[in-house]
Amino acid sequence: MERIPITPHGYKRLEAELRQLKTVERQQVIRAISEAREHGDLSENAEYHAAKERQGMIEARVMELEDKLGRAEIIDVSELSGSRVKFGATVLLVDEDTDEEITYQIVGADEADIRNGLLSVTAPLARALIGKEAGDSVEVITPGGQSAYEILKVSFN
User: Fold this and answer.
1) Separation CA 113–CA 72 (nearest Å)
2) Nearest to 132 by CA among 98, 89, 97, 77
3) What is the pTM (predicted TM-score) of this model?
4) Which domains, from first to last, does the chain contain?
5) d(CA 24, CA 52)
6) For residue 9, what are the CA distances in angstroms to 22, 107, 129, 130?
7) What is the pLDDT of residues 123-141, one digit of tens each?
């Protein structure tokens, strides 16, 4: 069973989503199905079919979240240190072409939010950064083309 690295914050977010699905959204869809059944013929009842489809999506997401939480390896970034980039590291980069500075934290795939500086550990840039340290340069092929970055700082906060 492959472990999934995740920060404590990311784990709590997944738990909260699972709790919301189980305690609120399941109940809402059950009520919607019940109400739609009262409208008669189910074969031509669009509300019934939409509610059943929504129920299937909720149950699939519940199963996915339960699997991910069961395989989660919670990594507390505050306990990490070192000079090399690894999961949980906050990395200050400079784009070697534009001189633009960018900061990313390497996080689990389910926590990634590039607009907020949270880079998935599975992203091409993160994979290129892992194991490197301040002063190293990396080249990475992204959907936007090839880019080169220099690592200015590696920290764990």
Assistant:
1) 19
2) 89
3) 0.80
4) 4-74 (1.10.287.180), 77-155 (3.10.50.30)
5) 16
6) 20, 10, 22, 21
7) 999 999 999 999 999 999 8
